[in-house]
Amino acid sequence: MAPTPQPEPARFDYVIVGAGTAGCLLANRLSRDPAKRVLLLEAGRKDDYHWIHIPVGYLYCIGNPRTDWLYRTEADPGLNGRTLRYPRGKVLGGSSSINGMIYMRGQQRDYDRWAELAGDDRWRWDHCLPYFKQHENHWRLDPEHRAQAGEAFAALHGHGGEWRVEKQRLRWEVLDAFAQAAQQAGVPATDDFNRGTNEGVGYFEVNQRAGWRWNTAKAFLRPACMQRPNFTMWTGSQVAKLLTERDGTGALRVTGCEVVTPSGRQTVHAAGEVILAAGAIGSPQILQLSGIGPAAWLHEHGVPVAHELPGVGGNLQDHLQIRAVYSVEGVKTLNTLAGRWWGRALIGLEYAWRRSGPMSMAPSQLGAFTRSSPEHAWPNIEYHVQPLSLEAFGEPLHPFNAFTASVCNLNPTSRGFVRIRSPRLEDAPRIMANYLSTAEDRQVAADSLRVTRRIVEQPALQKYRPQEVKPGVQYQSDEELATLAGDIATTIFHPVGTCKMGRDDDDSAVVDARLRVRGVRGLRVVDASVMPTITSGNTNSPTLMIAERAAEWIVQDGR
């Protein structure tokens, strides 16, 4: 029998791996030049699942193989041996299709620190701010609100870009009371978490448009990219490995990739660059499967070493949220509202009629940034406060009225890793977060629970007679509270750092300040994995800024 003929390699100028937060923006920017052929690869399906677009639909997208990679962490000593569900978007739009929709840049000091670690002042806050504004479309700068927003606000925010930022479409009496209690405990009120300092308490602003989720596929692919003849997108297509060769000088170059598509394996060639935008889990996995990474890890699984880079997959950082639950009386919460059939019917009718109410909710509505103890020079903890409670994500709401005050350490010192567990792309990598593995992180965990108690003790909340359900008032010492944090804490879905950027003298750096993989030509990483340190807040919008910057450099280098 004659061998089956192999299809001719597909040829493009740029191949973008991952149609998530960064990949969708990159596809938009790089395909603006009609002379450049751009291929966008996405392992997941199109974002045509209705629960992606209804804000509360994250409940049905996380843990759903249609939209989620279904990762789990390794058993973690810091969590007293527990493993955690580790959601990552496997769908067009990536994690922007299943995340909490919160628009948050972080703090100025985050980017100034990146500049120091990367040895490049272009990462300082003042230089990054224009790239946040470039794609932003903030509701307060709409014509009807522009005069009230003022010039100071306009100097910090953008309008007319693709990335819509809106205020939430509901309020809760119990959350208003928490905000008042936080102010009574010394946390100032704020109406803008994105000025470079996010200290304060207020309602989060969200990436929605008129009550619908606004993901990056809507923002950057439709309609612009879809109408460009030089743009191609393949869904259901997963990269098995990068293709490499040595040039006449012996330098390693990535020339394309091998892709598993619904119709079989396909070779793709890139005349310009391959850009990994597969996220903090996917990008290091692809590098390792391609023989780029720590030699010992690769040898252990029989992967030939193409280029040793010790930092690939290391430096994993994440925000671990400690969920304190308080029962309340005399005030409405989602627990009992959604616990009755007529309540659920009213919720559905309100959303159908006005695109508001609980179905328009982000997972967390109220936020606060403050210090876990006075010696911290800046806010080092973040609250996500919710008018509901449950034992664990995906389980039923409690049958009593309650709120949850989830608090996370913004700048954890614990570091984990992502490692392939086999040379097969079908096998999910090992994810070891090493939460609470340092004395500093355990101290912040204990102190932050005390801050929560101090807020709840204030007069504004006392009229609802709050009672601590979790972790429980019987736990008081540092060691008790840190251990209890390990029992009740969960990820807030912000993994970063596994392909970190750094100076040439940093052996653990994977990419340089322009996000080019060290020692490999034609390859760049552009996603949250390049962050050397985690931002002091939610990570989706910083990832877009990174992609905006990288797109400019890729275009410059391609001329």
From TrEMBL:
InterPro entries: FAD/NAD-bd_sf, GMC_OxRdtase, GMC_OxRdtase_N, GMC_OxRtase_C. It holds the Pfam family GMC_oxred_N. Its cofactor is FAD. It comes from the Bacteria. Belongs to the GMC oxidoreductase family. The keyword Metal-binding does not apply. The keyword rRNA-binding does not apply. Keywords: FAD, Flavoprotein. The lineage of its organism: Bacteria, Pseudomonadati, Pseudomonadota, Betaproteobacteria, Burkholderiales. Residues 89-112, 279-293 form the Glucose-methanol-choline oxidoreductase N-terminal domain. This is GMC family oxidoreductase N-terminal domain-containing protein.
